[in-house]
Each structure stands twice: as C-alpha cells, then as structure tokens.
Amino acid sequence: MSPTEREHKQKEPKFTRGEKCIFTHIVITFILILILVIIYFVHLCLVSHKGNDIFKVTRRQHTSVKENTMNDYRGLGLVFLKKPLRALCNAILVQKRWSIAPGFCVSARSDPHLSEMLPFWTIKYRTDGDKAESGIIRTIVHSQFNNDDLNNNIGLFEHDAFSDLPLLAFATIPDISSEDEQISDQMGIASWNFISNPQVMHNDVIIKTEIVGRTSTEDCKMHVTPITDLRDHEFCVVVGKENDVVLVHGALLLYANSSVVGYFSWGSKQPGETPIVILNVTYFHDWIEYITT
Predict the structure, then answer these.
(1) Has residue 138 got a pLDDT over 80?
(2) What does the alpha-carbon distance between residue 266 and residue 263 come to, in Å, rounded to a whole number?
(3) Which one of 1.20.58.480, 3.40.50.10140, 3.40.50.2000, 2.40.10.10 gives the CATH number of domain 66-292?
(4) When comparing pLDDT for 159 and 113, which is higher?
C-alpha cells in the first residue's frame, strides 16, 4: 500500500453520518427517560400516597360525563315504583310539597290499567347524608296536555313536604345555535344514574353529560316522533354520545352548571342517537304558581 493510499484511509471517518444520527437519538432518548424517572421519584417524595396507591392505575372517563353527589342537585328527584322496582322519570322540586315532571309520566299514575300499582308510586330526593322518600298524594296534569303529540308535556306530583331541600333556580333559555360552541360548552344535562339492575337503581350519583349544540326544527323533525312541529316552549338539543349512559325523562338541562333552563321532555334515552326535545319550564311558571300556591 502506497503512502498516499495509507494517508487517505486514515482520514476516512470511523462512523457514517447515518450511524452518528442513530447514536445521537439513542443518547437523547436515554437522557429523556432518565429525566422522567427522576421526576417520578421526586413526585413520590413530595406527594403523599396511601397504601399501594403509587402502583394503582386509574382509568379516567371522558370529561363530558361527570358523576356528582346528589347534594349538588338535591332538587332533582326520582319517581319510581317500589313494586315492581322500576325508575319512571326525574322530577324537579318547585315547592316543598310539589314536584314537576313530564306530563306522560304524571298521567300514567291515573291510567286505569295501572291501578293495582297505585300504592307503590314513590318520589325520592337526597338530603345531607340521608334519603328522603314520600308516597305520591295526588297528580295534576296540564289541562292542555296531549298524549298523542306530547304538547304541554308537564304535570305535578303532590307529596309530603321536603322541608330541608333547596329549590332549583330556573333561568330563561340562552340563545343557542348549533354553531355557537361557547354557549353549548356551558350546557349539560343531569339525570339520576339509570342502572338496568333494579336492585342498585337508587344510587347516590347523577350523570352529567355534555350538550353538543342546539338542533334546527327541520333536523329535529327528521329524527324525533311524534313531533309535527316544535312549539314555543320546546327546543331540540343533541347530547354527547356516551356508552353505558341512559337518561331518564325529566333530566335537567343546565346552563353554566347551575341554572335550570328546562328538562328532557321526550326523545331517545340513549345519548347521541338522535336529538332530544327540551321543555322550557319558565313558559309554565304562571300555571305552576297557580296550582302550588
């Protein structure tokens, strides 16, 4: 080998550019892993954990579904049968002795075919650390309620006085459109957690599901029957699709997490399948006041 060839070979790099790139990425990866391990152990030292919590992996739900204790919405009740045990509808406490609910739920108690179940109708609310139940004393359905097209779908249950429960605040319906994401993001629908197993139906949580947006009358009529046209006291919304969530009619439509703007009047109980119809409770304010005072 000539001196020139020997000198040229000595000048050749020991590693190619590709090999150097791979080596650099490996070094950076190991450095990042080392940093994460250090952060993890620092977290363990600074944050207190109980038992084997440091090894516990928590499966988080989608943020659109939230479970809240019933103390957050103590004015939201559940109407059910004690025998056979079956959830019927949500109810909203408007006076100490009166609760409103969808008209078809209220009118069902007067159905002659269901007369043998009359003694088992019960309404339930939650109080601080205890439950409050009462039998239904009487029912009053709106005089213009139509069971065919569900117009004026509202009624009242009279029951024993729930003196320790707060009355929910009602607000006018905000101007929602399917394009107005800011308002829709502040809205949710809250219902008693409906579980198909009747033995554990009455638990102490509610499900709060997000509202995707308001639906036009035309789109609503395409999906929801027996609707022929939305009335002034109704509007349609789309609920975020969630698995293993079943809404009960009469569920609260909330704005900004506190003000009630209506309740789930009728539609599919499975969120996300079709639009649902919301009844504007403030439209019936005078009628409610006339009956309950």
Answers:
(1) yes
(2) 9
(3) 2.40.10.10
(4) 159
